[in-house]
Amino acid sequence: MHSRITAICPLCRESPAVDAATHRDGEDEGIAEPTFAMIEVLHSGWSEDHGVCAVCWSFYRNLVRVLNISGCFDPRFRIGGRGAIAPANPNENGQGSLEFQRSKT
Known about the structure:
The protein has helices at 20-25, 32-42, 54-70; strands at 5-8, 16-18. It is mostly helical and 105 residues long. It has three helices and two strands.
C-alpha cells in the first residue's frame, strides 16, 4: 500500500496525515464510507481532501464499529450500508449533531 503524506492531520494536529484514499484502499469490509461520514459529522469543515493520520483513522473506524455492534447507529455509519446513506443533516434543527437511533433489528 502506497501512502501519500499530505500535511499534519487536521483532526488531531499532531501526526502526519496521509491521503484519505490510502485508508479507503486499505479497507475491505465496507467501513471506509461510514468512517468518512463519522469524521465529516464530528469535524464539519473536514473533507477527504484534507487527509487523516493513521491514529485518527483507527479511532473513528473503531467508533463506527462500536456503534454498529451496540445496535445504536445512524444509517450513515452502518458498515457495508452504502445504499443506506442518510442525508447530511438528518436532524430537524440542522445543527449536524449526532442523534443515534437504536437499531430495529
